[in-house]
């Protein structure tokens, strides 16, 4: 406790010896920051008293004008501390935004200056830090403090329209005050300082048609009933001025192009009250005979015009439509004109707008009326037939010169002369009657299409043509006949009353009521013993058996006459004959065989096909015969005839060998390689015996002495009593005995082929006579060749 009190007394003593003063800063003068000073108690009384001093900083903003144009640096302010006694012992430092580049400070006096001109629109304020330090020791005398230098705004930016020039539109005939658009100008100056950014709008050009609100920039119409047809485009110049529009303020302008949009405030008007048109009487129905037009000052859909014919004199003869491209009225012909009937037409046409605006009904009716007068021109026209086409009927075989009909053509201008160029018919040039020129045959030509041409006598160029169709009617002149040549058969197992064939008929005639045939036997009512005809009543009939038990051995073919009658007015009939064969059938009535002809005909084989099959069979037989002949002449070769057939180093030679010294007939290289010696090798040149075990040759792979190896081999062969001498021929054709299947070797099976007796082919019938004759020649052929021949014969 005592130590603590002593430390406090020592510190108070130190502070009493020095006085502390804070910074002072002023814009143009020193600003008091804080003041501190020790307060000492009276020394009388034998005791010292201390008063504690609390330091506090009070900072204000510095201001500097933008766009300073002076030659000297602009003075900003002054920093000062009470510790500075004016003895240059204190140094002031500056750091932060622009310190040293934009702002500088006098280290001794603390004066701050701006080195260059500043722009508030680029940077509105700068934040810096200041500190007082001892000039000798650089020891901070005061803590570092932060302050702000604000750039004071001046009116150096004019208002600007960022989106100009502008384009706007307003309907014509709009009332005063109709909103057009709003424009906005921006000012980069400080809106919180003075009137530098306070903008006022005004119109420099465009009055008295439009006005602008000075505060909001809203543009409105200023005159009523502005007509687009009088003036469509207006160019308005708007000014925006700052400083509240006062003198000395900066200003900016922009242009606004205002267009009056169209409204339907004008009715269509014809250029004249009467339109005269001339139309030839030969004009086609649906063709355009004239054009009229009502003009509308409006544009777009407001100028669309509808034309209508006022009911009256010409309303039934003409029609009118609107051309969408040029709004013309096209007058169309609805009915044919005839100068001789009526020479002129008069009617009224009304033109009106398709889209009306109810705001302008008080302007009057939005339509106009004009009179159209059409004069019909006389044209030398060709004759006109009374019908567009004619149809006539005539029976075939009608006598020549018979009138079958007539055509008529008329023209009020002059007479006419019809004519025809068809050779089957003739026409009267005056009366127009058509008559036959030849006998007609329906079976050859059932319908004649002719053209009749009418020509004016006084003007041959003018002609008219009409189509005439002549139908040739049928008469019953051909008797009916069977529809096809039937191939009828009856099974041997057929029963009584069984229908074995259904028949129909055909007729070249074509009666109007359709074909109707009846079938019967030639002697109706007389009982036949084999077959009869049964009429089904639907233009078909059936062949029915009257008995059973038909046999081919008794009678193979039956003939049945059939009487066929047609249903014409004059009945004609004919008799056809059916050929009925007796055939063998299976249980379900399917045909098996009738005869040789009956077999081939259903299959559909023609004579040419049968000849081709026989030629193929003959060619095959020739090939087989040649093959057998070549095989008979082939010689059998013995087993060991080839000099190249060498087995187990057996050398084929015809002279006596030279013994052991003969090294040319034996490959000595085999003796040098003991590895080629095979173990468990049986001798193949003698018959193996039971109990005789194979001998293994003793050979040392490590020995290179050939003489020792040969000696061992000689001793081995000398001890073998069953081995043949060295100079011998080894034959390997032996296969052993005792096999149940006997030998399968081709060596022992080369024997004469046994000839088989083929006389039994003669017993197979006449169809196998040719085959039996071929085999009767005892020519040896492979059995597969006989199978091929039998297959083709069947």
TrEMBL record:
Record key words, sorted: Calcium, Cell adhesion, Cell junction, Cell membrane, Glycoprotein, Membrane, Metal-binding, Repeat, Signal, Transmembrane, Transmembrane helix
TM region(s), chain numbering: 599-630
Topology within the bilayer: Single-pass type I membrane protein
Keyword Membrane in annotation: yes
Domain Cadherin, chain residue ranges per copy: 81-161, 162-270, 271-385, 386-482, 482-600
A Pfam family that the UniProt record links to this protein: Cadherin
Molecular-function annotations in GO: beta-catenin binding; cadherin binding; calcium ion binding
GO CC annotations on file: adherens junction; catenin complex
Signal sequence bounds: 1-20
Main location as per UniProt: other
One biological process term in Gene Ontology: homophilic cell adhesion via plasma membrane adhesion molecules
Compartments where found: Cell junction, Adherens junction; Cell membrane
InterPro entries assigned: Cadherin, Cadherin-like_dom, Cadherin-like_sf, Cadherin_CS, Cadherin_Y-type_LIR, Catenin-bd_sf
Top-rank lineage group of the source organism: Eukaryota
Region annotation (Disordered) ranges: 26-47
Function: Cadherins are calcium-dependent cell adhesion proteins.
Protein name: Cadherin-12
Native source organism of the sequence: Cyprinus carpio
